[in-house]
Design a protein that fits this description.
This protein is an alpha/beta fold. The chain is built from 20 helices and nine strands. A hairpin with a 2-residue loop joins strand 8 and strand 9. It is globular. Bound molecules: nicotinamide 8-bromo-adenine dinucleotide phosphate (NBP).
Length: 472
């Protein structure tokens, strides 16, 4: 009866594809879904004839699992996860493992892990990236939970994960919320990458107005070089897709109103709480928010006019190269900021995150997979204590090399009145981070002026604070 290696609750897009992946790698899997008809449809459809137990009750589901039981939850993040855990608890025993594979908030994972530990149940917060296709063919997997519990999960998750450079894209991240935090940071970086690609498109469109076919060629060329990545690849493909109804490029018919589910906002909110600059991702989140104000923007566009530059008279090829360089440099800054955030969170929660591992499991299976993650992996392999990715010689050289083009791209955007919150935030971070002196001396004077907040002096020892009587 108890014959299944693992069980999964929640047969929506991700759950269904994940269990098919597990089954295809030789595991026997019990499946359950709150709405029974979903299990029946799976049994009659994609699951037919395969090595599954199609459970119609949670009790049957649990009874089908080998001990220690491994029960993965793949339902909507938030209250549904707590509801499923509550139903599972009376059916499980100490030593069993519950895995939450959804995009849960890491603090929820910490709370759940603590509560279940008291009952002797291991709880795992596992980040799964790669969408529907990744879940089916091999996602990037970011597990967080007890090191002991991981022993019983590792044989399954390392086998179903994507493989990059011969290694599975799955490593143990650390205790409690570590896996879900890394997944959240991954999603934040994904927001940044997508926004930077959109800004490249916006600048080129405003200055050169390439056709969709030309964009297809431009992004296709970029994908052959340093920018080689899943997101550039799908962007290339998007430009080639025609609308069957009108024959026009589908991208030109899509409403410019972006959606978001919340992981980007969580990432930016916590970075800010920890005092970590995350300006590229913050720019990306805000760009989505602004895009969603479509009606307001349409009416503002009739009142507020931008510049009317002359048609672009420079070298088209050079501008395309400049935008590509700006995209690459901004992307490096975004990853550098994301890694600093992970470092700070690791210190805060004592997770001992390993950045080489993180960069290496993002090389395959997930949405941000990219050739340049090999270089990030290398950078942390050489120096696990690297303070900031931009200080690694490989990346520092790229930022030096692309700097002039990066500035040209931002200048062109400004000239044409194109918003580039990601490019400009990245460049401002670069210019701030490399500045030995910033205008914060004036800011400190202002704070002291109106609030007697005091300041330190350049000509006195650090830690000595001064106040000026500004009035009179
Ligand atoms: P959804 O996030 O759309 O959730 C649907 C599933 O949750 C269904 O199986 C539904 O059961 C179940 N569910 C809900 Br809603 N409330 C429940 C409750 N109170 N008790 C039990 N089950 C409940 O599914 P998804 O898109 O497959 O995503 C699953 C998780 O994976 C989410 O956390 C998501 O953020 C994450 N994720 C998604 C992607 C992606 O590309 N979609 C990628 C990576 C991670 P029902 O059939 O009875 O309504």
């Amino acid at each position: 009866m108890s014959t299944c290696d693992i069980g999964l609750i929640g047969l929506a897009v991700m759950g269904e594809n994940l269990v098919l992946n597990m089954e295809s790698r030789g595991f026997r899997v019990a499946v359950f879904n709150r709405t029974t008809s979903v299990v029946e449809a799976f049994e009659a459809g994609r699951g037919q004839g395969k090595n599954f137990v199609f459970a119609k009750t949670l009790a049957d589901f649990v009874a089908a699992l080998k001990r220690p039981r491994r029960a993965q939850i793949m339902v909507k993040a938030g209250a549904p996860v707590d509801a499923v855990i509550e139903q599972l608890i009376p059916l499980l025993e100490p030593g069993d493992v519950i895995i939450d594979g959804g995009n849960s908030l890491w603090t929820d994972t910490q709370r759940r892990e603590k509560a279940l530990k008291e009952k002797g149940i291991h709880f795992f917060g596992v980040g799964v990236s790669g969408g529907e296709e990744g879940a089916l063919k091999g996602p990037s997997i970011m597990p967080g939970g007890s090191a002991e519990g991981w022993k019983s999960l590792a044989p399954i998750y390392t086998k179903i994960a994507a493989v990059a450079e011969g290694e599975p894209c799955c490593r143990y991240m650390g205790p409690d919320g570590a896996g879900h935090y890394v997944k959240m940071a991954h999603n934040g970086i994904e927001y940044g990458d997508m926004q930077l690609i959109c800004e490249s498109y916006a600048i080129l469109k405003a200055a050169l107005n390439p056709s969709a076919d030309e964009f297809h060629r431009i992004f296709g060329d970029w994908n052959k070089g340093e920018l080689d990545s899943f997101l550039i690849e799908i962007t290339t493909n998007i430009f080639a897709k025609k609308d069957p109804e009108t024959g026009l490029p589908i991208v030109d018919l899509i409403l410019d109103k972006a959606g978001q589910k919340g992981t980007g906002k969580w990432t930016v909110g916590h970075a800010s709480e920890m005092g970590v600059p995350l300006s590229v991702i913050a720019g990306a989140v805000e760009a989505r928010i602004l895009s969603s104000l479509k009606d307001e923007r349409v009416s503002a566009s009739t009142v507020l006019k931008g510049p009317s530059p002359a048609p672009y008279s420079g070298d088209r090829v050079k501008l395309i190269e400049a935008v590509r360089d700006a995209l690459y440099a901004s992307k490096i800054i975004s990853y550098a900021q994301g890694m600093v955030q992970l470092g700070k969170a690791s210190e805060l929660y004592n997770w001992h995150l390993n950045f080489e591992d993180i960069a290496s499991i993002w090389r395959g299976g997930c949405i941000i997979r990219a050739r340049f993650l090999n270089h990030i992996t290398e950078a942390y392999k050489k120096n696990p204590a690297l303070k900031n990715l931009v200080l690694d010689p490989f990346f520092a050289e790229i930022l030096q090399r692309t700097q002039a083009n990066w500035r040209t791209a931002v200048q062109t955007a400004i000239e044409y009145g194109v918003a580039v919150p990601g490019f400009s935030a990245a460049l401002s971070y670069f210019d701030s981070y490399r500045s030995a002196r910033l205008p914060a001396n004036l800011l400190q004077a202002q704070r002291d002026y109106f609030g007697a907040h005091t300041y330190e002096r350049t000509d006195k020892p650090a830690g000595e604070f001064f106040h000026t009587e500004w009035f009179g």
